[in-house]
Write a structure and sequence with these properties.
By secondary structure, this protein is mainly α. The protein has one domain. Helix content is 60%, strand content 2%. The strands form 2 sheets. Strands 1-4 form a two-stranded parallel ribbon. It has a two-stranded antiparallel sheet with strand order 2-3. Helix 1 packs across helix 11 and helix 10 packs across helix 11. The two termini are 27 Å apart. The mean pLDDT is 93.
């Protein structure tokens, strides 16, 4: 395989290494999306790929490459093996959810559950550091965290109310009253027994939870600053609790500004959050914190946070333009929101994480060790 490895200097330096990986993974994401009509893309396929993301979060961030062990393997075999392991475990989760929670067919309620599992998994791994399973073996704490994520996400989902489509026109304030969604007379009435009827409208609740993970990634890019300045806050479960509460407060502020003051419809508020996560992960994963890492911290991290806004705007128009071109007349509310979010959250994000963590940017040379290591 060595003959496939480029030798040019740019292949091991940022940002060119990251630009190459971004172009490759976006091409894969767009190619996969182009293979589906919007109904299939937002149906079982959504649940399947989101099931991959949940276990991928544990593999890449929780296990950190320690399990399954591929030490000493030359690329591309670690990438092939770890991707296959992710697909196997994710497929098992997919069929479990389909059989026991989804009535045999994916629908918005189950898709929302899959999104909640991914968000919850990030908090369990990044904020709580896989507490309370840290003292168990590496594979045990990973699988227990993964299972706990599904349980907590299910509990959170019970707070959502899927009875109505709150903004049928896709704007706020809505010129049209809410219409039945899972309620009798709605398009999903056949699945009404499976849909939660909690105290919070599902669009608002899902957007709020998504924005919590937006701020979690902000803190990750900041190296958990300012919490990292206090050793007492960096101990578990204190750190996890403080970070989660802080993210909830910031998400509530974002909710108030966006939805209550600017009258942005909740699902569009959700999409804005997904786009910003796109920008954050572009600098965190693909560019490996370049260019901010060359500046004293946390100033360098704040630079990346600002630059991520520009990438978010580009992603909104680029992904939106592609989806509108491909899906055509079917690109209407709320399918337009979820199709764009799915390209980013379900395809591009996990492709970035897998390409960096599992494949190490192959066929480019392996990532060089940090200076002075």
């Amino acid at each position: 395989m060595d003959e496939l490895t480029p030798k040019a200097k740019w292949t091991v330096t940022q940002p060119w290494r990251g630009f190459f990986g971004t172009a490759l993974t976006l091409w894969i994401a767009f190619t996969v999306t182009a293979a589906f009509d919007i109904g299939t893309f937002l149906g079982n396929f959504t649940l399947l790929i989101m099931s991959f993301v949940a276990i991928e979060a544990v593999m890449g961030l929780g296990w950190g490459g320690k399990f399954p062990s591929v030490a000493g393997w030359p690329q591309p075999w670690p990438g092939v093996f770890l991707t296959g392991f992710m697909i196997l475990v994710g497929t098992l989760a997919y069929f479990t959810v389909m059989l026991f929670l989804s009535g045999g067919a994916n629908h918005p309620c189950t898709s929302a559950y899959s999104i909640c599992t991914v968000i919850t998994m990030f908090f369990l791994v990044l904020a709580f550091g896989m507490w309370p399973f840290r003292k168990t073996t590496v594979p045990t704490r990973g699988f227990l965290t993964w299972l706990l994520g599904y349980v907590i996400a299910y509990i959170i989902l019970r707070l959502f109310n899927f009875t109505l489509l709150s903004y049928p026109a896709g704007v706020s304030p809505s010129p049209i009253p809410p219409v039945p969604f899972y309620a009798p007379g709605g398009p999903l009435a056949a699945f009404a027994a499976l849909a939660p009827t909690g105290p919070f409208a599902w669009e608002t609740a899902l957007a709020f939870y998504l924005w919590m993970v937006v701020f979690l990634f902000v803190f990750v890019l900041l190296g958990m600053w300012p919490f990292s300045k206090s050793p007492s806050l960096m101990k578990q479960p204190v750190m996890g609790i403080v970070v989660t509460i802080t993210c909830a407060i910031l998400a509530l502020i974002a909710h108030y500004i966006s939805i209550d003051l600017l009258f942005i419809e909740p699902l569009r508020h959700l999409l804005n959050g997904v786009c910003y996560v796109f920008g954050l992960l572009f600098f965190l994963v693909m560019l490996q914190t370049w260019p901010g890492r060359a500046i004293s911290q946390p100033a360098g991290a704040f630079l990346n946070l600002v630059l991520a806004i520009g990438i978010a705007i580009v992603a909104f128009y680029a992904v939106g333009g592609f989806c509108q071109w491909h899906f055509g007349k079917a690109f209407t509310y709320p399918a337009n929101i979820f199709s764009m979010a799915n390209v980013m959250l379900g395809l591009t994000f996990p492709a970035w994480a897998a390409y960096m963590a599992f494949w190490d940017f192959w066929p480019l040379p392996p990532t060089p060790p940090p200076p002075g290591s």
